[in-house]
Amino acid sequence: MVPMKEKTVYLKSFGCQMNDADSEQYLGILGRAGYKPTDTPDGADLILLNTCAIRAKAEQKVFSELGRLREYKLRDPSVKIGVAGCVAQSMGKGILSREPAVDFVLGTGSAGDLPEMIRQAETGRRATSLLAKREFDLDTARLESVRTSLYHAYVPIIYGCDNHCAYCVVPGVRGPERSRPLEGVLREIGDLAERGYREITLLGQNVNSYGKKDNENIMFSDLLHAVCKIPGIDRIRFVTSHPGDLSEEVVHTMASLGPICEALHLPVQSGSDRILSAMRRGYTRAHYLQRIALLREAMPGIALSTDIIVGFPGESDGDFEETLSLIGDVGFDSLFGFVFSPRPGTPASELPRRVQETVAQRRLQAVLDLQREISARRNNALVGSLVEILVEGRNPRDPQGLTGRTRTNKIVHFQGDVSLTGTLVAVRITEGRPNCLIGVQP
Ligand code: SAH
Ligand code: SF4
Ligand code: F3S
Questions:
Q1: Whose C-alpha lies nearest to ligand 1, atom 19?
Q2: Closest residue by Cα to residue 271 from 337, 205, 208
Q3: I need a surface site. Which of 26, 155, 222, 231 has the fewest CB within 10 A?
Q4: Ligand 1: residues whose CB is within 6 Å?
């Protein structure tokens, strides 16, 4: 028998952790079809982009990347190029007409169709799969994922979103909310624990609504209890939580279960009630602040992070001041700031009173400047404390040093032996910078 030539795939992932998890899953599916991952497009048989449509810039990035990758196909026409993910789902066939080098388009629910898309491409047909899920067994595909890290893993628990925030494409490109049955979640985490994984991040657009649309009566806090019973997992995190759905029960569950990390990403988007209502976020500033107080009362050392959108249509100077004051009042450990991007098909893209780009950029800079000060102050306050680090490996900027993360998800650089990778070590913090901490082993 002639041995099958091993093929290679270059996969580039854009966007959120959900895409990262899907990309690892694609590599698993491709592994079964005989493809090995490679970290360069040069010489790869298959080039796959897993795309993000959240803002116009994210979408533009995909097309400029495709423009570059086209060269590989011009050099060797047997190279196949596929586009998966959220831009694939939103533009569908439109991608084939816009970029002639693309062979196939794979939507967000079509992972099971990936081998079929490649077969079609090999016969010279350009194909699109936007819904099929042919022969797709999610739990098996999750178990076969080819993961980036050997110690930390993503585990999706809920897909899609039913919230319909006025600016957001996610419900359109990821579909309605579907909770993954608990059994598959537990099997995936059990398997990871047996393979030596120490830290798990549970994923979903709104993890707090886990189970709400199903009849099984297993809610998010039940899931947390079940996950924490799996031996071998030291740390559990979850993203993203919606402030409107974060219940007192979940907060108390977080505080009571040892493996759940003292960190929460709770996107607020704006500090102005008027803008929150126009965004259709479904909560007020007061409610948000009350959730923060509840979290800090239950877990005094908790690290909090958030997302902010500036320049939403109709955002006045006064509204923006309220966002700044909320950021100051909460004192987040970190935040992601974005300028509002009008996305086709979303209600916010039709709203009048657009904020001028220069004004929006100035507001974004003010948010980032304020947060830099707050982060530096909060990180400085940790100097002298002893923290537990999960060591991730060498510090990319200092080959002699190591990098790891605290339970509060802060990056720590320290000197140590590379054999510590993948273990938990105690480190004394000696310096707090805006984006990381420096420490020494005591
Ligand atoms: N499900 C999560 C976040 C999903 S998108 C949540 O509800 O919080 C991640 C972040 O991108 C959002 O929190 C928001 O801050 C930002 N974002 C989403 N749509 C955007 C848009 N049209 N323009 C600018 N930022 C946007
Ligand atoms: Fe988008 Fe809102 Fe759903 Fe988050 S909760 S994914 S911002 S619609
Ligand atoms: Fe982007 Fe899709 Fe995630 S739009 S943020 S990759 S769900």
A1: 168
A2: 337
A3: 231
A4: 54-55, 167-168, 170, 205-206, 240, 242, 267, 269, 307, 309, 338, 340-341, 343
The ligand minimizing its distance to the Cα of 163 is 2
Segments of the chain assigned to CATH 2.40.50.140 = 386-440
- The ligand 2 atom at the shortest distance from the C-alpha of residue 161 is 3
pLDDT band at 217 (very low <50, low <70, confident <90, very high): confident
Q: Give the model confidence (pLDDT) of 164-198 as tens digits.
A: 999 999 999 999 999 999 999 999 999 999 999 99
- Ligand at shortest distance from the CA of 14: 3
Indicate where the chain has its CATH 3.30.750.210 domain(s).
Answer: 149-261
Does the Cβ of 241 fall within 6 Å of ligand 2?
Answer: no
Size of the chain, expressed as the number of residues it contains: 442
* Domain 298-381 CATH (choose: 3.10.310.40, 2.40.170.20, 3.30.750.200, 3.90.25.10): 3.30.750.200
Q: Which of 239, 88, 224, 268 is nearest to 156 (CA)?
A: 239
CATH code of domain 149-261: 3.30.750.210
Residue 296 DSSP class: H
Would you state the structure tokens that stand for residue 25, as one six-digit string? 């899953």
Round to whole Å and give the CA distance between 345 and 29. 32
- CA of 241 from ligand 3 middle (Å) equals 15
Q: Which of 338, 357, 364 to mutate to test the pocket of ligand 1 (most atoms within 8 A of CB)?
A: 338
Q: What are the residue ranges of CATH 3.40.50.12160 in the chain?
A: 7-129
- What was the pLDDT predicted at 131? 84
Q: What are the phi and psi torsion angles at 417 (to 5°)?
A: -85, 140
Identify whether the C-beta of residue 123 lies closer than 8 Å to the C-beta of residue 139: no
Q: Say if domain 386-440 classifies as CATH 3.40.50.300.
A: no
Threshold 0.85, pTM exceeds: yes
- Determine contact, residues 57/82, Cβ cutoff 8 Å: no
| CATH H-level, domain 7-129: superfamily | Methylthiotransferase, N-terminal domain (3.40.50.12160)
